Amino acid sequence: MARFGTSETVIVRREDGWARIHRAHTKAATTETTGHVVKALNDIGQEPDLNDWPDVIVDEDGVGGGVVDQLREQDKPVTGFRGGMPPIDTERFVDARAEAYWGLRELFESGQIDIDPFDDKLASQLGAIKWKFASKGKIRVESKEDMRKRGVPSPDRGDALMMVFATAARVVVDVESHRGESITGDLMTKAW
Q1: Does residue 26 lie in a domain region?
Q2: Nearest to 98 by CA among 129, 140, 57
Q3: Per the confidence metrics, is the pTM higher than 0.85?
Q4: Residues paired with 24 in a beta bridge
Q5: Residue 180 placed within a domain
């Protein structure tokens, strides 16, 4: 979530392996962001066979918790994502964010993702993300703070894409030593 500064609040829509930025904006109150999410849900509509709305995943860290609360208050199907939480595979990854980005990397490698080929901002953000092994041999993805220290903006679009593929959700809202193998050029190949 981006209430202040240059970071973006990003809404991503996903259908199987297809994913596109539905909306990106800056400097909006959580109530306005909640309104944009509800509008996105209305734009997408209900599942024809299920009479159910698509799931929404929200970056719950920071101000995103307010959006989660407001969507729950409206009985929308929402789940919070917290990148610092423990991963499912605790032997391989430091946290849920590293695990989810690695899963995204593997989906790109296997050709299972279709993103907008003209979204240069998303491609640039994905290409700027670095990873390394932590001291216990677990995979760690560079933090947003470390990215800012080297002059790279927050990967808001990349984070939203990562979250939509880390879950079964169809709508995602992102609120803010060793070399890997290439996904699409530079995605997570850079040493940190």
Answers
A1: yes
A2: 140
A3: no
A4: 10
A5: no
- Dihedral sign of CA atoms 146, 147, 149, 150 in order: positive
Provide the number of structural domains found in the chain: 1
Is position 182 within any domain? no
Q: How far apart are CA 140 and CA 10, in angstroms?
A: 24
Residue 183 inside a domain? The answer is no
Length in residues, the chain: 192
Instruction: State the SS3 of 124-137.
Output: HHHHHCEEEECCCC
Q: Encode pLDDT of 134-176 as tens digits.
A: 989 999 999 989 999 999 999 999 999 999 898 754 445 555 4
> Residue 26 and residue 36: Cα distance in Å, rounded?
12
Query: What one-character DSSP code corresponds to residue 181?
Result: -
CATH of the domain at 70: 3.30.420.240
CA nearest 80: which of 93, 89, 67? 67
Q: Which tokens belong to 4?
A: 């202040």
Name, in order, each residue with C-beta under 8 angstroms of 21's C-beta and a sequence gap of 6 or more: 10, 11, 12, 116, 119, 122, 157, 160
